[in-house]
Amino acid sequence: EGRLVGVEEIGPNQDLAIAIPVGIKKLLSDAKCTLSDVNCVSVNVGPGGLSSTRCGVTYANALSFGLRIPIVGIRRFELVGSLAWKAKNIPALCIQRASLGKAYIAIYENGDLSKQTFSTLSEAMVSFIDLKKEFVLAGALPANIPSAFSSFEYVPEESIPRIAKEMISIADRKMLIGDFKNCPIEALNEGSAEFS
After folding, report:
1. Segment 117-174, tens digit of pLDDT
2. Tens digits of per-residue pLDDT, 30-80?
3. What is the 3-state secondary structure (H, E, C) of the chain?
């Protein structure tokens, strides 16, 4: 079973190729652990910032391959959706800003993701509003949320330690049911099958 040994936040202006290994080394040192104590790697596969997501996934794949341990890919919407579901016990409409006025959007309900799409919010709004369900909004919302979404409650992003604990919980659950790989996994983007 996984445990949180610490949290090392990486700033938005840091070189991830350097910051990730330095941060992992510091975390292990602070916890008085070594890489040989690691028996599974979990990583946020996105959607998210293209460079940061790919860098994190690449490093996680390298750890998994080098240590010959399993890797668990966790979608960003599994994280924010799970936390919103636990907070409000109703489906979460998960949104992740993207470039050019587009967004990744999905519904999280009781452990399941559905209706994953990549489009403008205006285009997606019609199909989600037509569901006539009560939702909370979760994720990284664009500043220009369409007015049709303005009546939904927003569940703010959780703290990094809370997200890390939820990631461990999801990874543990996936390991129990065999939902992991032995390397490699890929970052999600608009070309991924989930968003077509």
Report:
1. 888 877 776 667 666 678 888 887 766 666 666 667 888 777 777 888 888 888 888 8
2. 999 999 998 888 898 988 777 888 899 999 999 999 999 999 999 999 999
3. CCCCCCCCCCCCCCCHHHHHHHHHHHHHHHCCCCHHHCCCEEEEEECCCHHHHHHHHHHHHHHHHHHCCCEEEEEHHHHHHHHHHHHHCCCEEEEEECCCCEEEEEEEECCEEEEEEEEEHHHHHHHHHCCCCCCEEEEECCCCCCHHHCCCEEECCCCHHHHHHHHHHHHHHHHHCCCCECCCCCCCCCCCHHHC
Q: Is 65 exposed, middle or buried (0-12, 13-18, 19+ CB in 10 A)?
A: middle
